[in-house]
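Subject: design request, 153 residues
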């Protein structure tokens, strides 16, 4: 296996939220974004006979970051977050189109912040959307997806 000389950089990329055909492309509003996982592991138990039963492990995922809020767009992410908080929305996230790896899934939308810290500052909001289940990843091969590369073979 040849190790990569570069692991990639954030951007240019894509973040779309909503159902295919009506999704909201917020790519040009994103200041940073990441899918994170959190591990929840229960304690192992030792039985009377001395056997040890391992604890169970589960993971939860979030899509989080910071976006410029599109408060003037009635069909934008800010409006969706205010009008439909708590709803499940599909998402597609590609942090680097050059790397080509894409995550898709469903997230729960929470309301974005409204306002800024000082006069003249950009209207931005941190966000953390819970991912329902586990995101699905399609791994890239430096601009082409694995699926596309396999299809060509």
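Subject: RE: design request

Done. Sequence follows.
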């Amino acid at each position: 296996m040849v190790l990569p000389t570069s692991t990639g950089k954030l951007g240019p990329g894509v973040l779309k939220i909503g159902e295919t055909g009506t999704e909201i492309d917020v790519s040009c509003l994103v200041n940073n974004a990441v899918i994170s996982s959190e591990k929840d592991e229960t304690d192992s138990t030792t039985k009377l006979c001395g056997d040890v039963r391992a604890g169970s492990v589960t993971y939860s995922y979030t899509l989080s970051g910071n976006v410029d809020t599109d408060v003037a767009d009635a069909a934008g992410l800010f409006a969706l977050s205010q009008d439909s908080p708590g709803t499940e929305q599909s998402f597609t996230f590609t942090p680097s189109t050059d790397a080509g790896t894409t995550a898709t899934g469903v997230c729960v939308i929470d309301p974005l912040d409204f306002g800024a810290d000082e006069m003249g500052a950009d209207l931005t909001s941190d966000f953390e959307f819970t991912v329902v289940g586990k995101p699905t990843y399609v791994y890239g091969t430096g601009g082409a997806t694995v699926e596309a590369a396999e299809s060509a073979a």
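Residues 14-40+58-152 form one domain.
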